[in-house]
Amino acid sequence: MPKAVIAGVGMTPFGKFLERNLKSLSEEAVTKALDDARVETQDIQCVYFGNAAAGVVTGQEMIRAQSSLRNTGLAGKPMFNIENACASGSSAFHLARTAVQAGQYDCVLVVGTEKLSHEDKRISFGAFARGVDLDEPLPPGVGSGSGSVFMDIYAAKARKWLASRGADTSDFARVCVKSRLAGSLNADAQFRKPTTVEEVLNSRMVSEPLTLFMCSSIGDGAAAIVVCSESFARQRGVAPVFIDACSIVSAPGVQDAELVAVTASDKAYEEAGIGPRELHVVELHDASAPAELMHYENLGLCDDGDAARLIRSGDTGLGGRISVNPSGGLLSRGHPVGATGAAQLVELTRQLRGQAGERQRPGAKVALAENNGGQLAGDSAVAVVTILSI
Fold first, then answer.
1. Which of 340, 354, 352 is nearest to 189 (CA)?
2. Which of 74, 143, 280, 363 has the fewest CB atoms in 10 Å of its CB?
3. pTM higher than 0.85 for the full model?
4. What percent helix, strand, coil does the chain show, rounded to 5?
5. From residue 333, how far is each of 45, 179, 233, 279, 311 by CA, in Å?
6. Keywords in UniProt for this one (predicted)?
7. What is the mean pLDDT of each run of 10 residues along the chain (390 residues)?
8. Do the domains 136-217+246-389 and 4-119+220-242 match in fold?
9. Looking at 86, 107, 176, 246, which residue is catalytic?
């Protein structure tokens, strides 16, 4: 079976770009990824295109890949449109890796792209509000306070988590401080101004206990990844980044089931034949600051109950023992949802290549990405965990 690898990556800056459309964003990311992989459009045999919200925000349905990529030189290639909430980009990557490992293709392209900013913010927030089971009643208070269904959901989880851990809201603020520092060093990040614990805690309350700085923001952007067989990469003179595992899990849809992030990470560790202590760098789904601490435990980066100690230790900071979200994560790099999973993999590829500049985790050889999306029965509706190495 061919070994699937990453040969090239590229992405746009993330931010609010009212003047740009899906074509503009996708074209920039694709051009950068192809150049990085030293391939031409004719080398690409298939495209996997992740996008979550274009139908709601821009009105483009059904042929999002074909319309977005029509001017890239890729027109006529097989294209698959992948919509899987905030995990759309990583789901597209999962399918691309599977196709290459099966020997179906030698070289394929993954594109994750999203245009979320809109002159009418109700349209942007409305896209997120559709990422739940609309036949399932929302918990009390969700969607009626902040105006954001997901931030109300995250806030409820944060309150419950705080009550069971030796942590306080200053630990959430520490996540934001770490995130903003990383973002200040990332030219592609949406938020590039460092902050302090006091500034985070004093920013506007969105949904108790989440302040504005603790919430990921609406934004636009695209990321692209060239996935190919190891032999193809070496023929092009490209040092491959190996895809050791890529696990995708959907929520069982019942209360109190094992969290999808836990199940997906366990499957990925088993496939890769490693444990969390062997990781050097991690990009995880910090749609809110508390989510980062919760995922420390979900991914086995620390024991249950030790997340506050881990963030306080500095071990997850830039250059730390296990650097977490050195890109700035969703909180600072930004969260254009269909692009997020692909952007995580762009950052990790650069970390493993030693190309992350001041954000570099020295000696990084093993990396993990955790990306989830939607909500179902009290959990994310889907989670994707990918392990990369050199």
1. 340
2. 363
3. yes
4. 40, 20, 40
5. 30, 8, 29, 22, 19
6. Lipid transport, Lipid-binding, Transferase, Transport
7. 92 97 98 97 98 95 97 97 98 98 97 95 84 82 70 92 91 98 98 98 96 95 98 93 98 93 98 98 98 98 96 97 98 98 98 97 98 94 98
8. yes
9. 86
pLDDT tens profile 229-241: 999 999 999 999 9
**Is the backbone peptide bond immediately before 252 cis, with ω within 30 degrees of 0?**
no
In the chain, the amino acid numbered 164 is S
Q: What is the pLDDT of residue 220?
A: 98
Quote the pLDDT of residue 145.
60
DSSP string covering 136-176, please? SPPPTTTTTSSS-HHHHHHHHHHHHHHHHSS--HHHHHHHH
**The CATH number fitting domain 136-217+246-389, selected from 1.20.1050.10, 3.40.47.10, 3.30.70.20, 3.40.50.300:** 3.40.47.10
Residue type, 320: G
- Taking domain 4-119+220-242, whether its CATH number is 3.40.190.10 is answered by no
For the chain, the maximum distance between any two Cα atoms, rounded to a whole number of angstroms, is 58
Which two structure tokens, joined as six digits, stand for 114? 């999203």
Catalytic site includes residue 302: no
